[in-house]
Design goal:
There is one protein chain. With 80 residues, the protein is mostly helical. It contains three helices and no strands. The longest helix is centred in the last third of the chain and has 28 residues. The chain starts with 9 loop residues before the first helix and ends with a helix.
């Protein structure tokens, strides 16, 4: 676990927030793909994958936001 006292470089923070964005994109794509799936079991499996990526992205984002002092600043810069 990352301690608050330990500084994480801005570069590493940016990389981790990039991973959050990538996981969110994958989850979004899987939700869309699940709508096109005709097989009920296939649809459920795709939705399960989407939910896994969505949950991982959310948890990492929450952890970064709570543990890293520059997290909100970097996130705002990425949205510009």
């Amino acid at each position: 676990m990352i301690k608050k006292e330990k500084a994480v470089s801005k570069k590493k923070q940016t990389i981790l927030f990039g991973l959050v964005g990538r996981w969110e994109d994958i989850a979004r794509r899987k939700w869309i793909d699940s709508e096109a799936e005709n097989d009920q079991m296939g649809k459920r499996l795709i939705e399960h994958g989407a939910l896994c990526y969505q949950n991982c992205a959310r948890e990492l984002k929450e952890a970064l936001t709570s543990l890293l002092p520059l997290a909100s600043t970097i996130q705002e810069e990425d949205q510009r």
